[in-house]
Amino acid sequence: MEIVFKEEAKTFHLYNDQISYIMQVLPNGQMGQLYFGKRVHDREDFSYLLETLPRPMASCVFEDNKSFSLDHILQEYPSYGTGDYKSPAVEVLQKNGSRITSFIYKGHKIMSGKPRLEGLPATYTEDEKEAATLTIYLEDEPTGLSLALTYTIFADRNAIARSARFVNEGGEELHLTTAMSLCLDLPDHDYDWMQFSGAWARERHLKVRRLEEGVQSVGSRRGHSSHEHNPFVILKRSHTDEFQGEAIGFSFIYSGNFLAQAEVGSHGTARILMGIHPDCFDWKLEPGEAFQTPEAVMVYTDRGLNDLSQTFHQLYQKRLARGYWRDRERPILINNWEATYMDFDEERILDIARKARDCGVELFVLDDGWFGQRCTEHAGLGDWVANRDRLPDGIAGLARRIGDLGMKFGLWFEPEMVNKDSDLYRAHPDWILHVPGRPSTHGRFQYVLDFSRKEVVDCIYGMMKKILGEADVSYVKWDMNRSITECFSPALPADRQGEVFHRYILGVYDLYERLTSKFPYILFESCASGGGRFDPGMLYYAPQAWTSDDSDAVERLMIQHGSSYCYPVSSMGSHVSTAPNHQTGRLTPLHTRANAAYFGTFGYELDLNTLTEEEQEQIKDQIQFMKKYRRLFQFGAFYRLESPFAGNVTGWMVVNEDKTEAAVGWFRVLSGSNQPYARMRLKGLDEAALYDITVHREKNKPYGNFYGDELMHIGLVTSDATSGEIPGGEGLGDFESRIFLLKARTQEA
């Protein structure tokens, strides 16, 4: 791993064993992009990559030169208005009304390790040898606005983290109206654009289309990263698949409004931008004030999409998630939400918990309805005190009784929201985001607290700290159930209203930071109506997130599959829910519900008392199985084998570090008659190892033994009774699934 600066050529080369990133100070002093991709040899001069020729209609920088036009030069952090007509990475409104800037190179700094981003989630290092960081200092001289571009390259990962910091060192106020975290100008546009989009209960579905001339983008202006689009996109070559070919992934470590955009020019280049969405963004910089953009991460691979995903998995699992729970197996939980909704009392809760304890569940989570006057959606949010009519001894008393059963206790909060029917709102009606004199929209009869205001965050922190400090709470589910409209804070002046969206998210991060610091052993799980804020920013504070409110196993195949392109299995909250499913009405077999949920943190969201004795025995077996194999599922290398977006079968696989154990998930949505024989090629195994395979259902069933090269090159036979004429044969029926367990024989065996 090196960061090299060539003084004569004014080039920077960041490289490790896998990737190279090359930049140059351009003749006009701005920064130009030369190359990002597979590692190349270092050389004294890469300036041959800077191509300039006269082109019709070009606006040129130098009066005596018809070739040097920023409209045709690949740039690092472009601004609009000095000959470049494409979307900018930065735009600054000045006192005279101008938006023209030109950031000129002033110097740079190279350091070992990686600096922190104050108040923002970001990747980190635990040893300086893990990474090296380059900061390039630039200035727009007429305004005195300085810009620091930061690049961190990791020693053993094909990833680069980027961010930008602005400081107003001039004498007049400025307004940042665009401040991207990342710009990458590519020399061609021969890519497929992959995005992960959907809506509530069908998040992160894979969408693919060709890059063409013009602009295509995904983003959010909802105040959170959103169910609709995830802050993650991939560019891949048309021939690239899961296991071969080039791709570049772009991930934004942020939980608020975002934009990920590709702009293809008329000469075939492609500009990728990622950062805070410029719409509704306007950050005022008084003289001496600074603004730090969130971090974005780029990953390059020439070994296919699985390799790209595993890079993100390893980086985010080990160097984005933090704290006590980062590397620990997650407890198997039961959540009462779909069992009771808000209709419960303490005895009903204890009744569910006792049965769960008998089945082997480790953690009971009390969901919505325990606080204030929260008997319906209309009331209670904001009043974080126990409802003594339901819980006579409060949260501390219930936690103690759950503890006496031998289980840990967890609690649901929705700290960012308030109902108008609440003591908090009656005391502070101006604490919601709203425009005075205009009506406010609600979502589920709730309103968004103004987390841009410190006093609001302080108040919520005080209530949560009191509960968590007085009760033995091991887990917190942090929910957020509506988007932000009428984004206005009465506490800020008119010329700072463009800051509210970002200040809100900074307030959320501040509350998370305070609580996780005060209670470092509590496992926090983020949630936003399921997957509405499933993003890397949340992962920094909460090592797992509720993946979707759609708890049906068949729907989860697409949701978890799409999520896996960026996010590790250990981050995906996944539960076995009741049947018929509450979102789809689907009657999915119990074993399939569990098989899908194994590829996540695993738990239950139902009342086990309502199941038959046979089903309860299956539950006990599932829990024993997950306890035995959860490290493999949650921290093993994950492979996508078959895609639910491509056909009727989904295939997933996890492999431990030394390739001695693996688990394969095979899922078929619809049954068929007289089907072809089927095989599934496995990945990540030791070619020379002999693996004993069993099939887990309720009991492990021997399946045979095969060498790793057989399983990877010939494939695992997955045919069942649907491939022949076997009335009532094993495996018939819709929504079928199997888990294959692989264990390598030792040399002695």
State the gist of this model.
By secondary structure, the chain is of the alpha+beta class.
Report the sheet-strand fraction: 25-35%
Percentage of residues assigned to helices: 10-25%
How many β-strand stretches?
A: 39
Q: What is the alpha-carbon Rg in Å?
A: 27 Å
Instruction: Determine the structural class based on helices, strands and strand pairing.
Output: alpha+beta
Largest sheet: 10 strands, antiparallel
* CATH architecture name of the domain at 2-319: Distorted Sandwich
User: Averaged pLDDT, please?
Assistant: 96
Quick one: overall form? globular
The stretches of 5 or more residues where confidence is low (pLDDT under 50) are none
What's the total helix number? 12
Distance between the termini: 41 Å
The CATH class of the domain at 2-319: Mainly Beta
- In CATH terms, what is the fold-level topology of the domain at 2-319? Beta-galactosidase, Chain A, domain 5
